[in-house]
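[Meeting: bench + compute handoff]

Bench side (C.D.) handed over the final construct sequence. Compute side (W.E.) agreed to return the predicted structure before the next meeting so the bench team could plan truncations. Sequence as handed over:
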Amino acid sequence: MEEKREEKKEETKENNTAKAGGFKAFLKKQNIVFSAKAYFIDAMSAMANGLFASLLIGTILSTIGTQFDIEFFVEAGNYAKAVAGPAMAAAIAYSLKGSPLVIFSMIAVGSAANALGGAGGPLAVFFIAIIATEMGKLVSKTTKVDILVTPSVTICTGVGLSMLVAPYIGEAASSVGNIIMWATDQQPFVMGIVVSVVIGIALTLPISSAAICAALGLTGLAGGAAVAGCSAQMIGFAVMSFRENKIGGLVSQGLGTSMLQMGNIIKNPRIWIPPILASAITGPIATCIFKLEMNGAPISSGMGTCGLVGQIGVYTGWLDEAGHCMAGAMDWIGLVLISFVLPGVLTWAFGLLLRKVGWIKEGDLKLEK
């Protein structure tokens, strides 16, 4: 009797193992991999690209159209801004390797999540798009009527979640962003340092500072501090590494991304000290002295000098309803100092000191070709 029980236990165990193995094999076949990197690095970076290709470029085109009285640019910009939700969701699905039907179905999901998420729509899109994409991948190409099943599951999952949780996710994100902006208004010196350093570090890490700022709706003084921090990283690394990388490195980092230095940071983390110190100085200068504010699209706060998007975002906040620039000389001086001059000078000086004490050696900042 005892032997039969043992045999039954073993059989049950084997069946469970087989089922677990079969389910894992099925997930692998459907290209579903539960990964923090895929969800919080790849997907977030893709979301930022989606935002850039819609809301951000739309804002830039509209601004150019308004300033130069080109109606076509204004209209093109407005159409681009209108599809921010779908662009983000489709980009996320693409990064997670969804099938074409899944990716195209995310247009409806992104529209619902962004609209129902309100001011915190980008964060709602981020979470809901990931879940809807994985659900779509789960059923993708498993039936003979895939053209009906996959879009139905993807859209119903995404829209259903949007109706259930998007408003709450949006409110939470908006609340966090409002708290950060309120704290920056109350304590511009301390929060100027904190926001500048944290968002600047996020810009250089393989995550998206632009997506973070967009998700939190970071504008105002806090947005200005974020611009300062991102600019310190980009211009700082570009200037500090000029002896190694010359003009090509100056442009690729100063107008592209400081993320290019991530490999070198892993090898020698001390090279990150100069731009971080620079951001800790320029942040409070931006908030306390020049009162630099981001009143453009929140995503611009996390872009720094990448394509001069951060600076264009600040500039759009200086325009009145008729499109006339209301900025004074001090506004322009502050923007130039915070975005370009101080990051370059401070990071270069700190970098020179660290080179002299041997913390940074020749070639530590060399970018791979």
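W.E. noted at the follow-up: Residues 34-174 form one domain. C.D. will use this when planning the next construct.
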